[in-house]
């Protein structure tokens, strides 16, 4: 690129230069009639932007990142730290630079028209040349750039279009988001043509009372000043009125530049169907620009949602209603392409979110692909639209650095100019983790003036003082602030604005403990309105194990069970050989890289239930409508009664006609059978008809109420029958067991355990390697055997007693463990044993069928469940404790010939049945390295610690900790 004037400017080290030759951002829809330039381009990767082009060409697919397309420049993952040591605004000398070239020939009918190039996204600096002539520069890796090529392209004479993408730049320092670093043209490239007289921008505002206002900006690049142009608008057959007062061409001042004028169209739609996330009603709008003779010079199509957003006191209102924000943070991610997402993929993301009760998306941490907003309008999501500003590593320097002022304002304003017409966007976000400085205030000032219809948020501004009002955030939108802290703030009397976590409940590995506690507090505390779970995706890139290369676009190997295909794995930080990386911290989503929902999704679905069982009273079941805008007519229900003894009854449920917020009692659908055992009533709620996001019959929620508790009295101790065999070490000998029941105080640390410091502490205490010493084995005359053992750990001795009583068909085992006071917080207290091979099916009565843990057990209904043992385990990317089931009363493990064992527990317990010992899980770093055992590894826990979210944010609450002292549990083991 030597000698080139654009390169000579070195725009990659000039933060003041946000663009050159780039057209203003706008919201005119140019999709129809465009000439797509996607496909294979000639490509070469230079080692620096200064290197001469001229080596050999290969090819690269557009849209796509070259980092997943076979180059030696591979993806790299860092969270906070920059991948290079240079301070802003500098970039490293070794700076991969991709040169994309192709010939373009425009259609004959484009002769004489204005021709515009649109580059969907380039990471991180784009330089454009046509036939060697400099055209322009653009920055912001997540927004499109347009360039006027009218005088450079002509039909019939192909030109060479060159797009040069410089990977590292001054802009990288404000794109330091926690994600993979890539390089390339990651969104589509196209050309379109307009007349010289054209719509430069269209701004639509539509309120909940049906008031519609459309502001059109018109330009004429032809030099002539056409007289008498006008615009017209049509909203589903209704013509809008033009307010001619805004027509500058008709004004007396003849000194008109190519900014020709503005025109406003208005209408009031009676009985308007308002837009909200539950009923996302959209109206089609066509805006036309006419010449004086009435012929159409330009058209733009929009979908309009009539809705209002406002903050009143400390409530965020949509159409006057205080909504709850059940949000998730979403990156543009795909396991094959890294960053490039197709329309189908985005639709699948949003459909899945709808099915699991989410109603909001924060586009962390940059404007997402434009189709996300179309889909959010259509399917119904509230969107916090976030600008590409994250200077995490150098946040303090950059927030007040005037060299970056342009960039902040440019990025925020261009996002708003692009997305302003989407009803889904209810809040603008200035960016993420960039401290707080004058550059933010400048961007907020621009937004407030330009779009007074939406609030602005920025975590970095509001976190300094949640009660302050004179800063860049209209909301308090903390990150990982503890529930206690937030409730306290809401109750303090000092809260001045809504509190909606921009990030909470960090979904790394086996996580999201206490989500139900959060929602109980949110729904009962004025001032708290919800939040955005961190995050949607586990960003595992599909990688071949043999050569550690990304599989890339078009690759196969995606399953739908969360596991990469054989010979592949989900790569996380470090797996591409990056010397600087942040490991598995990139795998922190509520879905696996193939979009398989993790168990937390079921928890969320239930927490978001639109219809709930409020309580069970003598007159019947009280149902409530927990939506904000919708009745229950879109849902159907079925009652299911599940009895501990195995009985199950079903009956169709008539859902009452309830307005949002209303409740009504419905009669109990069943006579409770005699018998005295536990009885649970579930309302299976499904979609009554096809919804855009779910076919008829899709489960929406499974609210449940206990109609009858288990008999409270403890059964009398069984009378011994037969004999129990115990070896000289006091270990039970049983034909179905390959390892006798032993004490376990350890779990393979979850990501929360490791990063929250518990895992290291447990290791220091020696809990992963208890040394067992039998102190007493006593055979009683009646057949009982009592075994006393001491388990020595670094930090103390645990006394463990097992009493084995032979009973009809099996053994009853009573256990107790006394934990010294030093063990303030252990993972579990319980028994672990292993079975013979061949027991491949688990059936149980308890919570399920999906994985659940003490602090993540709201969404797993009590019932009779049956799951193959191999499917009980959840394949978190970094192996860790997983596969647990909460509240298990009894279970069987059986072979296809119905032989096997059954365990009856003294009370609902946490049970884990997998193919792995804790040590198997801790020994490896990726799921594909695990070798399943033939038998089952069974854990029965008297107590199991909650999961919390300590990998980033609060740990579980104290009520879910395992305390020192004496724990007792008992269970009966029988052969089937
Ligand atoms: C936040 C940040 C996210 C992500 C998350 C942890 O601090 O905004 O980008 O890093 O923590 O996974
Ligand atoms: Mg960050």
Automatic annotation (TrEMBL):
<dbReference type="InterPro" id="IPR023232">
    <property type="entry name" value="Glyco_hydro_2_AS"/>
</dbReference>
<dbReference type="Pfam" id="PF02929">
    <property type="entry name" value="Bgal_small_N"/>
</dbReference>
<dbReference type="InterPro" id="IPR032312">
    <property type="entry name" value="LacZ_4"/>
</dbReference>
<dbReference type="GO" id="GO:0009341">
    <property type="term" value="C:beta-galactosidase complex"/>
</dbReference>
<dbReference type="InterPro" id="IPR006104">
    <property type="entry name" value="Glyco_hydro_2_N"/>
</dbReference>
<dbReference type="GO" id="GO:0005990">
    <property type="term" value="P:lactose catabolic process"/>
</dbReference>
<dbReference type="InterPro" id="IPR017853">
    <property type="entry name" value="GH"/>
</dbReference>
<dbReference type="InterPro" id="IPR006101">
    <property type="entry name" value="Glyco_hydro_2"/>
</dbReference>
<dbReference type="InterPro" id="IPR008979">
    <property type="entry name" value="Galactose-bd-like_sf"/>
</dbReference>
<dbReference type="InterPro" id="IPR006102">
    <property type="entry name" value="Ig-like_GH2"/>
</dbReference>
<dbReference type="InterPro" id="IPR023230">
    <property type="entry name" value="Glyco_hydro_2_CS"/>
</dbReference>
<protein>
    <recommendedName>
        <fullName>Beta-galactosidase</fullName>
        <ecNumber>3.2.1.23</ecNumber>
    </recommendedName>
</protein>
<dbReference type="GO" id="GO:0030246">
    <property type="term" value="F:carbohydrate binding"/>
</dbReference>
<dbReference type="InterPro" id="IPR014718">
    <property type="entry name" value="GH-type_carb-bd"/>
</dbReference>
<keyword id="KW-0378">Hydrolase</keyword>
<comment type="similarity">
    <text>Belongs to the glycosyl hydrolase 2 family.</text>
</comment>
<dbReference type="Pfam" id="PF02837">
    <property type="entry name" value="Glyco_hydro_2_N"/>
</dbReference>
<dbReference type="InterPro" id="IPR011013">
    <property type="entry name" value="Gal_mutarotase_sf_dom"/>
</dbReference>
<dbReference type="InterPro" id="IPR004199">
    <property type="entry name" value="B-gal_small/dom_5"/>
</dbReference>
<dbReference type="GO" id="GO:0004565">
    <property type="term" value="F:beta-galactosidase activity"/>
</dbReference>
<dbReference type="InterPro" id="IPR036156">
    <property type="entry name" value="Beta-gal/glucu_dom_sf"/>
</dbReference>
<dbReference type="InterPro" id="IPR050347">
    <property type="entry name" value="Bact_Beta-galactosidase"/>
</dbReference>
<dbReference type="InterPro" id="IPR013783">
    <property type="entry name" value="Ig-like_fold"/>
</dbReference>
<dbReference type="Pfam" id="PF16353">
    <property type="entry name" value="LacZ_4"/>
</dbReference>
<dbReference type="InterPro" id="IPR006103">
    <property type="entry name" value="Glyco_hydro_2_cat"/>
</dbReference>
<dbReference type="Pfam" id="PF00703">
    <property type="entry name" value="Glyco_hydro_2"/>
</dbReference>
<dbReference type="Pfam" id="PF02836">
    <property type="entry name" value="Glyco_hydro_2_C"/>
</dbReference>
<keyword id="KW-0326">Glycosidase</keyword>
């Amino acid at each position: 690129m030597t000698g080139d004037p654009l390169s000579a400017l070195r725009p990659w080290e000039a933060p003041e230069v946000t663009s050159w030759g780039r057209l203003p951002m706008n919201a005119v829809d140019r999709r129809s009639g465009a000439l797509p330039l996607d496909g294979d381009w000639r490509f070469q990767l230079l080692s620096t932007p200064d290197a001469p082009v001229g080596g050999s060409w290969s090819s690269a697919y557009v849209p796509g990142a070259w980092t997943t397309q076979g180059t030696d420049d591979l993806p790299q993952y860092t969270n906070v730290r920059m991948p290079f040591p240079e301070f802003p605004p500098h970039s490293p000398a070794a700076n991969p630079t991709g040169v994309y070239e192709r010939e373009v020939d425009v259609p004959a009918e484009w002769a004489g028209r204005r021709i515009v190039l649109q580059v969907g996204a380039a990471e991180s600096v784009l330089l454009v040349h046509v036939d060697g002539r400099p055209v322009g520069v653009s920055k912001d890796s997540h927004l499109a750039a347009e360039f006027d090529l009218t005088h450079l392209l002509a039909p019939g004479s192909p030109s060479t279009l060159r797009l040069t993408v410089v990977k590292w730049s001054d802009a990288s320092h404000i794109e330091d988001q926690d994600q993979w670093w890539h390089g390339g043209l990651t969104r589509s490239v196209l050309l379109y043509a307009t007349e010289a007289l054209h719509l430069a921008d269209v701004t639509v505002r539509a309120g909940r009372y049906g008031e519609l206002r459309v502001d059109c900006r018109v330009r004429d690049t032809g030099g002539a000043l056409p007289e008498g142009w006008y615009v017209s608008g049509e909203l589903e057959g209704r013509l809008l009125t033009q307010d001619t007062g805004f027509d500058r061409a008709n004004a007396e001042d003849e000194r008109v530049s190519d900014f020709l004028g503005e025109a406003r169209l208005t209408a009031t739609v009676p009985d308007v169907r308002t837009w909200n996330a539950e009923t996302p009603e959209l109206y089609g709008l066509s805006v036309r620009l006419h010449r004086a003779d009435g012929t159409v010079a330009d058209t733009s199509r929009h979908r309009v949602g009539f809705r209002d957003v406002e903050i009143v006191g400390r409530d965020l209102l949509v159409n006057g209603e205080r909504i709850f924000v059940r949000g998730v943070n979403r990156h543009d991610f795909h396991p094959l392409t890294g960053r490039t997402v197709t329309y189908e993929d985005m639709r699948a993301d949003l459909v899945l979110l709808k099915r699991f009760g989410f109603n909001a998306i924060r586009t962390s941490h940059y404007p997402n692909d434009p189709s996300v907003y179309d889909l959010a309008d259509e399917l119904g999501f509230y969107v916090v639209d976030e600008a590409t500003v994250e200077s995490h590593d150098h946040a303090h320097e950059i927030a007040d650095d005037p060299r970056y002022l342009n960039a902040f304002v440019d990025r925020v304003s261009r996002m708003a100019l692009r997305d302003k017409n989407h009803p889904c966007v209810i809040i603008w976000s200035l960016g993420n983790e960039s401290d707080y400085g004058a550059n933010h205030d400048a961007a907020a000032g621009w937004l407030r003036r330009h779009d007074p219809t939406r609030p602005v948020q920025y975590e970095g501004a509001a976190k300094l003082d949640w009660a302050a009002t004179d800063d860049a955030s209209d909301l308090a939108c903390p990150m990982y602030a503890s529930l206690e802290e937030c409730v306290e703030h809401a109750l303090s009397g000092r809260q001045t604005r809504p509190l909606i976590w921009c990030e909470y409940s960090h979904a790394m590995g086996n996580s999201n403990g206490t989500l139900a506690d959060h929602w109980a507090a949110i729904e009962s505390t004025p001032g708290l309105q919800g939040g955005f779970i961190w995050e949607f995706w586990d960003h595992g890139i599909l990688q071949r194990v043999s050569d550690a290369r990304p599989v890339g676009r078009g690759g196969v190997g995606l399953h739908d069970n969360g596991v990469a295909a054989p010979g592949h794995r989900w790569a996380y930080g470090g797996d591409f050989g990056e010397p600087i990386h942040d490991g598995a911290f990139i795998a922190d989503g509520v879905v696996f890289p193939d979009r398989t929902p993790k168990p937390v999704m079921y928890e969320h679905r239930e927490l978001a239930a639109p219809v709930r069982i409020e309580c069970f009273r003598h007159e019947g079941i009280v149902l409530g409508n927990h939506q904000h805008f919708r009745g229950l007519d879109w849902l159907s229900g079925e009652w299911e009664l599940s009895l501990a003894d195995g009985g199950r009854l079903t009956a169709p449920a008539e859902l009452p006609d309830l307005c949002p917020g209303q409740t009504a009692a419905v009669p109990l659908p069943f006579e409770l059978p005699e018998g005295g055992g536990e009885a649970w009533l579930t309302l299976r709620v499904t979609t009554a008809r096809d919804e855009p996001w779910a076919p008829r019959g899709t489960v929406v929620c499974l609210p449940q109420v206990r109609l009858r508790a288990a008999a409270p009295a403890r059964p009398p101790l069984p009378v011994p029958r037969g004999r129990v065999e115990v070896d000289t070490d006091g270990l039970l000998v049983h034909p179905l067991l390959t390892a006798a029941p032993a004490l376990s105080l350890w779990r393979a640390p979850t990501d929360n355990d490791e990063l929250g410091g518990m895992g290291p502490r447990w290791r220091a205490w020696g809990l992963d390697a208890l040394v067992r010493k039998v102190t007493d084995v006593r055979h009683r005359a009646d057949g009982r055997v009592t075994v006393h053992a001491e388990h020595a750990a670094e930090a103390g001795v645990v006394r463990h007693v097992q009493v084995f009583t032979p009973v009809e068909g099996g053994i009853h085992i009573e256990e107790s463990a006394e934990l010294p006071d030093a063990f303030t917080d252990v993972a579990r207290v319980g028994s672990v044993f292993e079975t013979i091979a061949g027991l491949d099916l688990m059936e149980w009565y308890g919570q399920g069928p999906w994985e659940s843990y003490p602090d993540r057990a709201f969404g797993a209904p009590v019932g009779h469940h049956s799951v193959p043992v191999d499917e009980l385990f959840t394949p978190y990317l970094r192996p860790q404790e997983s596969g647990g089931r909460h509240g298990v009363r009894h279970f069987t493990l059986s072979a296809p010939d119905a032989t096997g064992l059954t365990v009856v527990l003294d009370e609902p317990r946490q049970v884990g049945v997998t193919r792995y010992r804790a040590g198997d899980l801790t020994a490896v770093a990726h799921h594909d390295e695990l070798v399943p055992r033939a038998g089952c590894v069974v854990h029965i826990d008297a107590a199991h610690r909650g999961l919390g979210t300590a990998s980033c944010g609060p740990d579980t609450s104290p009520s879910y900790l395992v305390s020192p002292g004496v724990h007792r549990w008992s269970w009966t083991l029988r052969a089937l």
